[in-house]
């Protein structure tokens, strides 16, 4: 079968099924099956695809039509211009979270030797991106899941920043204290997190791509969606140096409650930053 015909057959099946991004999904899956960059699908559309590659592309298509996200099928997802491996214990890093990385980078200088604590690191997307963008940065990546930390380390290795990232298995930042050997100097410059913030009652109504493939531990924010912030904000207040900052991804309707928590624990200069869709997405604040 010609490559162009294979791509179009998968694309048309996705369109008929009403997938949100049928053309892009088909390009990514067929390209991966053929081990070709997406751009080459057009350049080589008259070339013949091998039988094994055709079978693999069709298997990928069946998985996608069954509700599995492209990232889960391929075991990887792009984030901040880099490839990140996934596993069953990690969320797929999403474009909205790039807003948090931008917020940290825009509030720090390239030469800053900053120390970052990423709570609930998952794939390590936030920590690894910051380390890759800031060569003088060091990070502690915290997660309750050993499998998630394994994934984060694999991604740190992939992007050659593993020597500047320390994995810590803990429930939030419970293993880190100002007197802990894991906390260098007098405190962190940044504490960042994309915590679980979806209300428990809302989870069942999410798309099957989320409910069947993302880990509940990384989604469920409790009855009001704020459970994680009630832990992270006071812990950050004790871990940050004077003048250090906290950066949190938040739900679109959580800004007021998160700001209350930040003020209660002595944070000032609070900013709420919108994502590309204009929704409140990140809260940044400075420790006095």
Plain-language structure description:
- With 288 residues, the protein is of the alpha/beta class.
- It has two domains: 3-74, Orthogonal Bundle (Helicase, Ruva Protein, domain 3); 88-287, Rossmann fold.
- 39% of the residues lie in helices and 19% in strands.
- It has twelve helices and nine strands.
- The strands form two sheets. It has a seven-stranded mixed sheet with strand order 5-4-3-6-7-9-8, sandwiched between helices.
- Strand 8 (267-274) and strand 9 (280-287) form a beta hairpin.
- It starts with a helix and ends with a strand.
Could you give the topology of this structure?
Layout lengths: L2 H14 L5 H13 L5 H4 L7 H15 L4 H5 L1 E4 L2 E4 L12 H9 L8 E5 L5 H9 L4 E6 L2 H13 L6 E5 L18 E6 L6 H4 L4 H4 L15 H13 E10 L5 H10 L2 E8 L5 E8 L1
Parallel strand pairs: 3-4, 3-6, 4-5, 6-7
Antiparallel strand pairs: 1-2, 7-9, 8-9
Helix pairs in contact: 1-2, 1-4, 2-4, 6-7
Concise structural overview:
Helices cover 39% and strands 19% of the residues.
CATH level-two architecture of the largest domain? 3-Layer(aba) Sandwich
3D shape: elongated
Order of helices and strands, N to C?
HHHHHEEHEHEHEEHHHEHEE
Radius of gyration: 21 Å
CATH topology of the largest domain: Rossmann fold
Question: Mean pLDDT, as a whole number?
Answer: 92
Total number of strands: 9
Low-confidence stretches: none
- Going by CATH, what is the homologous superfamily of the largest domain? Vaccinia Virus protein VP39
Oligomer: single chain
CATH class of the largest domain: Alpha Beta
Structural class, by secondary structure, is: alpha/beta
Query: Which strand order spans the largest sheet, edge to edge or round the barrel?
Result: 5-4-3-6-7-9-8
How far from one another are the termini? Answer: 65 Å
Note the beta-strand portion.
Answer: 15-25%
Number of helical segments? Answer: 12
Number of domains: 2
* Helical content (DSSP H or I, runs of 4+): 25-40%
Q: The biggest beta sheet, please?
A: 7 strands, mixed
